[in-house]
Amino acid sequence: MNTRRWKIGAAALAAAFLLPGCETMPNVGGSAGGLAAALGGAMGGSGNSAGMANGIQDVVSGASAVFKDYSPQEQRALGQEFSSVLLGARPLLRNDAVQRYVNQVGWWVALQAEPPKDKDGRDIQFAWRFGVIDSDAVNAYATPGGYVFVTVGLLRKLNNEAELAGVLAHEVAHVVRGHYLSALKKGGFAQIAGGIVQTQTRNGGAMTAAMVNAVRNLYAKGLDQSDEFDADRQGLLYAARAGYQANGLPKVLRMYAASGSGSDANYQMLFSTHPAPAERASRLEPLLGSKFAAASNVTNEARYLAMRRKL
Amino acid sequence: MKIATVRRLAAATVLALGGWAQAQSLQVSTATELRASPVLNAKSLAALPVGAQVEQLQQQGGWLRVRFKGSEGWVRSTHVRSAAAAAPSAGGNPLTGISGVFSASSNTPTATTGTRGLTQEQLANAQPAPAEVSRMEGFAINAAQAQQFAQSGKLKAQPIPAYTGAEQ
């Protein structure tokens, strides 16, 4: 028992020293490679298959293809481990009422998204979990399998429920459109993701240092810029379908552009992993007058502000 | 052709992300490295001890391109502060890093963060917290509860079709 603990400590220490050279995970960590090897070729070592070359194909069929690589249970396992690392950077806010409120808005919005299909053609039903991270930073994250996070810093900057719905809808889109799964594939993390999937059953529940590093790197690098724009468009759609005023997300993006900057530490991650917010807003705004011209006008400002006062 | 496009895009991104800042004298507030490019694991060009003077040339995202003893490289914006602001140092602890650094400059909120930030450094040091993930289960709701919540907020699902691709 003691020895085992010491070993984990040693692995973590090794990770700390290895970090600067860990951009491409498959080169690191023999133990993780061993786990991945046990999974055979099913995970697909690299994302460079011929069909992925065309950018449009990639977005349209690539998104559905990634859901065939991982069963819903495997996506859930990835989500749990990714969440564990994210919440290791900053913990959850200790405020049950706020946590529950964000789960309610999030679930309602998530119900408006078309579920992706698994490899047998069945709809994937996500057990959505929304969490508020106790951080002053302004950001939101998602993981495969239906975990979504927003920071307290972001909640403080929002003015109504329609804006929150827009932010959560953008994150829901990352999940149902397979953006994190395709980032794993393209980033060369497929093998190590296989190891992470196996962690809960074969490795006593503890991720290896190389796995932890892979997750950190994934979130430090962010997703494809085209996937961010895609999540914006889908987010606009899901929030409007949920009955909210459609301009919630564009308003939040304008707020980022007006009050944030890449040199502000609270916006550093958001700006380094996303396209410029003004550009994102300007791509959405024409849709407000066309496709979403007849959208509803509910913002539930009072309900939102009542929650915000508890932060 | 493709490469030229990529380069142009990259240049546009740099401008969009912060553009060119005028040269400014900065002081290293926590020991770090001068890096060849603005990524955490880029090649280290030199060690930057606490108190080292650097000159800011450019800003991109959370990174600053700086000149240090004749070499140019990149440093995290959270690891430096303006030389003027640094004068009465509150003494960030270079060994423990983050908390010392941030508390040392907490009176300049736009350039720094509280210890409650979530920076790339904090992410880079994150250790798994499975108990926090379990905690989330306590706030979990289901679809029926979400529908009830929507109803109490006068939210009605709108039948808006998926994008066809024909939208502008």
- Our measurement of the CA-to-CA distance between the termini of chain A, rounded to an integer number of angstroms, reads 41 Å
CATH topology (fold) name of one domain in chain B? SH3 type barrels
Main sheet: strands, sense, barrel of chain B: 5 strands, antiparallel
The averaged pLDDT of chain A comes out at 81
Characterization of the model:
The complex is a heterodimer of chains A (311) and B (168). With 311 residues, chain A is mostly helical. Helices cover 60% and strands 5% of the residues of chain A. A 3-stranded mixed β-sheet of chain A has the order 1-3-2. By secondary structure, chain B is of the alpha+beta class. Chain B has a domain of 58 residues: SH3 Domains (SH3 type barrels, Roll). Chain B has 6 helices and 7 strands. In chain B, the strands form 2 sheets. A 5-stranded antiparallel β-sheet of chain B has the order 6-5-4-1-7. A two-stranded antiparallel ribbon of chain B has the order 2-3. The longest helix of chain B has 15 residues. The radius of gyration of chain B is 23 Å and the shape is elongated. About 24% of the residues of chain B have low confidence. The chains are: A mainly alpha (311), B alpha+beta (168). Chains A and B meet through α4, α5, β1, α10 and α11 of A and α4, α5 and α6 of B.
Write the layout of secondary structure elements.
The complex is a heterodimer of chains A (311) and B (168).
Chain A: H1 2-18, H2 30-38, H3 55-69, H4 72-89, H5 96-110, E1 129-133, E2 140-143, E3 147-151, H6 152-157, H7 161-176, H8 179-186, H9 190-202, H10 209-221, H11 225-241, H12 248-259, H13 268-273, H14 277-289, H15 301-308
Chain B: H1 2-16, E1 24-28, E2 32-35, E3 44-48, E4 53-60, E5 63-68, E6 71-76, E7 80-82, H2 83-86, H3 98-104, H4 120-124, H5 130-137, H6 143-152
Antiparallel strand pairs in B: 1-4, 1-7, 2-3, 4-5, 5-6
Features:
heterodimer; A: 311 residues; mainly alpha; 3-stranded mixed beta sheet; disordered N terminus; B: 168 residues; alpha+beta; SH3 type barrels; 5-stranded antiparallel beta sheet; two-stranded antiparallel ribbon; 7 strands; 29% helix; 22% strand
